[in-house]
Amino acid sequence: LRDHIKDASNEVQLAYENTLKALKEMGHEIVEKKMLDSHYQISIYYIISMAEASSNLARFDGVRYGRRAQNIKDLKELYLKSRSEGFGDEVKRRIMLGNFVLSSGYYDAYYLKAQQMRLMIKEQYNKIFEEVDLIFTPVAPTSAHLFNYHASPLEMYLSDIYTIGANLSGLPALSLPVAKDPLGLPIGMQFIAKAFDEQ
């Protein structure tokens, strides 16, 4: 999966190579496989997850579910204030994008296409698992961030690039720290297994 990690930081790539070397020395056979470009996976994942988030959060209107705004004049203001005060920027962003991909005229172009691509990704993993027991990849393209680090939304989405394939495919994955970067922050790797093969 070396092509799969080409966008990872130098520290993550080095930790990946060193861990592969250690696994070989322990007697494990390493088999190289090619994956669908992870940038496709991230687009598919966020289309589906934002659609699901907007659908699931629609009920939080301040009437029956969720936070109820105070000092309101009418029902419209109740909905607007409750949702704008009760949801953070990221949640609002996901609701708006989710509503867009589920809207008439865009459902087929985005959501339905993403679901079809999700099946392709799942089939790709299943094909790889015909020849291997586990898939080994980084958890993120960089080491862990400092606690008070504020990433841009795009940077935040891209940090999921190596974990979303397992999520889209319903596969179990185990992550563990394998090294530290120059600041002493952990670098994580993961083992992905076949569906229902956690044991």
From TrEMBL:
Protein's UniProt keywords contain Transferase: yes
Keywords assigned: Transferase
This protein's record includes keyword Transferase: yes
Superkingdom of the source species: Bacteria
GO molecular function: transferase activity
Pfam families registered for this protein in UniProt: Amidase
InterPro entries linked to this entry: Amidase, Amidase_dom, AS_sf
Name the record gives this protein: Aspartyl/glutamyl-tRNA amidotransferase subunit A
Protein species of origin: Helicobacter pylori (Campylobacter pylori)
Residue ranges constituting the Amidase domain according to the UniProt record: 5-199
